[in-house]
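Annex B.
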Amino acid sequence: MDFSYITDNQKRFIDELTEFLRIPSISTLPEYKESVQQAAEWTASRLQHAGIEHVKVMETNGHPIVYGDWLHAEGAPTVLFYGHYDVQPAEPLDLWNSQPFEPVIENERIYARGATDMKANVLLPVIACETWLKDANTLPVNVKFLFEGEEEIGSPSLAGFMEENKELLRADAAISADSGRMEEDQPASMVSLRGLAGVQIDVRSAGGDLHSGLYGGAVPNSAQALARILDSLKHEDGTVAVEGFYDDVMERSDEEKETINATFSSDETFQQKAGVDRVYGEPGYTPGEQTLIRPTLDINGLWGGYQGIGVKTVIPAESHAKVTCRLVPNQDPEHVIDLIRRHVERHTPAEVDALVFPLEGKAYPYMLPEDHPGLKAVEEAVQHVEEKSPHQLRIGGSIPVAGLLQQLLDVHTVQLGYSVFDEGMHAPNEFYRLSQFEKGQKVYTRLLQELAEYLE
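Acetylornithine deacetylase/Succinyl-diaminopimelate desuccinylase: predicted C-alpha cells.
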C-alpha cells in the first residue's frame, strides 16, 4: 500500500479537520450540549464517508457515543479504534491570539481548541481505513470504532455503555489515538498510565454561619476541622497516611526505573519547569518515579467561609475540599475511595460532621504487557514510515478507556497518537502540527497491515 491517496487528498483532509474544529464540543458545560451532539453527528458522517458500515450515534446517560465497523476480513483479527470528539473549555479567552473555534493555520500549524486533544488524532484511523478501501476495496483487518463525547469529564458514561455492549465492542486489540510524544521527531507509544479516584469532603459544624463576636471560642469551626482532616491525609515526609493505601501497589523493576530515570528530566530541570524551589514527595523515589509509576494523593481545591474583599467575622458552618489520587497497577479506584472515606471517619473531630462523596471520572491504572503483539505492530509501522523506533512512554495522567477495556472486555490497548506535548493541550493557543497530521495518516495506514500480521 503506497501513500499516494493520502498525498493527493491532503488538502481535503485539512479542510475536514478545520470544519471539525469549528464545532465547540465542550462536554463539561451544559449550554454546549447541542454542539457536542453536532460533533457526534459530524464524526458519524465522516466514518460513513470513509466506507465504514453500521455507523450510529448511540445514546448514553450523558453525551452520545459514535460507533461504526467494517467486518469483511474473514479470518483476520478485529481491532477497536478509540478516540474522543469532546474538548475542554477555551477560557481564558483573552490569552488566545485567535478565536478558539475559528481555526487558523500559521507556519504549518493549525490553531484551535481541540486541535491536538484530540480531533486531529480522531481522523487518523478513519483516513487510514478510507485509504485502504479506496485503493484496495478491502481492509487487512476487521475494524470497529468507538468515539466518545465525555473523555474530558472523565468518561462517566463509558463503563455503563461497555457493560451493555460487550459483544458489539468485542475485539482482539484496541488502538487509542488519544496519545502523543514528547518531541516532534521522536515517535512514541504510551505503555503505562496511572488511574484516578477522587472525593469531595464536606464538613458541617453548625446550622448556619455564626458571628464570631457572639459565638467565637465556644462553638466548632468547620474550616478548622476540615484543615485537621486534610492534614491527617499525609505524613510530613510526603507519604500518604491513609491506612491500606499502598497495600496493592505493584513495585516496578529496577530495570524499568533505570529506563525512566535515564530519560526523565534532571531534578534541576524538573524544578525549573514546575517553578518550585525543591522537589518534595515520597522518600526513596526520584521525581520521574514519583510522577510516573507511584500513587499520589493531592488536595485540588478547598473552600468555606467568607472569601470576599475585607473582613467578615463569621464562623463558617460549612467547608469543603476536593481530593484526587493518581493510582498505579493493582490499585482499584472504588477501594481507594473507600479507604479515604474510612480514614476521614476516623479523623473527623467529634464536634463536627463530615461526609465523603466520590467524584465522577474514575479511571483504572493501565500497563501494556511488554510482549503484546499490538505493540510490535506499532513499532513496525512507525519504523516503516518514520525510520525510527518509538520510545515507550510512561505517563502520569489517566485515560479511562484503557483500564476499562482491560477490566470489562479483557482487551489490551496500544496507544498511538501524533500530538506533541508542547502543543498547548487544554491551554490557550492550542495547536497541532500539520506535518504530524499527514505522518500519522501514513503510519495508521501501514499499521492496519502490520496488525493483520502480528495479531494472528
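The chain has three domains: 4-193+365-454, 195-247+295-358, 250-289. The chain has a mean pLDDT of 96. Further annotation is deferred to the next reporting cycle.
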